[in-house]
Design brief:
This protein is mainly β. The chain is built from 1 helix and 5 strands. The chain has a 5-stranded antiparallel sheet with strand order 4-3-2-1-5, with no helix packed on it. β2 and β3 form a beta hairpin.
Length: 71
């Protein structure tokens, strides 16, 4: 649970992502235009468009996805 320590020390937020081949924990990032993404070593950059695409570990999705339309 190193991501919890890094969240407390630096305020970084983390998500749990999963696809058909693997899964992992990555740090959430924002670019200057408000695009939210995470980076994995194997798959590179992945943009988060909907809150259900990942599991938010250290913060609510509303912190990054302010304009998301709820269904």
């Amino acid at each position: 649970m190193i991501y919890k320590i890094l969240n407390k020390l630096f305020g970084w937020d983390y998500v749990l992502w999963e696809n058909t081949c693997s899964k992992g924990v990555s740090r959430v990032r924002n670019d200057g235009d408000g695009v939210t993404y995470y980076v994995s070593i194997v798959y590179g950059l992945s943009i988060i468009k909907r809150s259900y695409e990942v599991i938010w570990l250290t913060c609510p999705s509303s912190k990054y996805l302010k304009n998301e339309v709820k269904k």
